[in-house]
Amino acid sequence: MAPMIERRRTPRVELTADESLRLELRHRVQLLDISQTGALVGCDAPVPVGTRGQLRAGIAAHTFIAEVDVKRHHPKAPVRTQFGIGTAFGSMDERNRKFLDEFLQRTRD
């Protein structure tokens, strides 16, 4: 077998097992329902349980932002090709918490 010709312009360095990398992926989701503790979203791609991310949604002329944890897969999705994903809210700033509380209260009335 002929030796491989090196085509890299810069050398690679191997990392030890204790080095880590965070790869941020974006998925377009459809917000299906929301509560004070989490949201159900529809997504074109399956997202593994345990995945953490950030939910950004336009709700009532407000950009709502919260950290979420994927807790379960759910059969409810508006389109057959979507995956239903149940999430729980993690950290959320006070402004978004207050907006969510007010929005949920208005929709209950």
Offer a few descriptive terms.
single chain; 109 residues; mainly beta; 5-stranded antiparallel β-sheet; 1 helix; 5 strands
* C-alpha end-to-end distance: 75 Å
Rg measurement, Å: 20 Å
Give the helix proportion (percent range).
10-25%
* Low confidence ranges: none
Commentary on this structure:
With 109 residues, the chain is mainly beta. The chain is built from one helix and five strands. The chain has a five-stranded antiparallel beta sheet with strand order 1-2-5-4-3. Strand 1 and strand 2 form a beta hairpin. The longest helix has 15 residues, at 94-108. The termini are far apart.
TL;DR?
The protein is mainly beta and 109 residues long. It contains one helix and five strands; from the N terminus they run E-E-E-E-E-H.
List the helices and strands and how they pair.
Elements: E1 29-34, E2 38-43, E3 52-59, E4 62-74, E5 83-89, H1 94-108
Antiparallel strand pairs: 1-2, 2-5, 3-4, 4-5
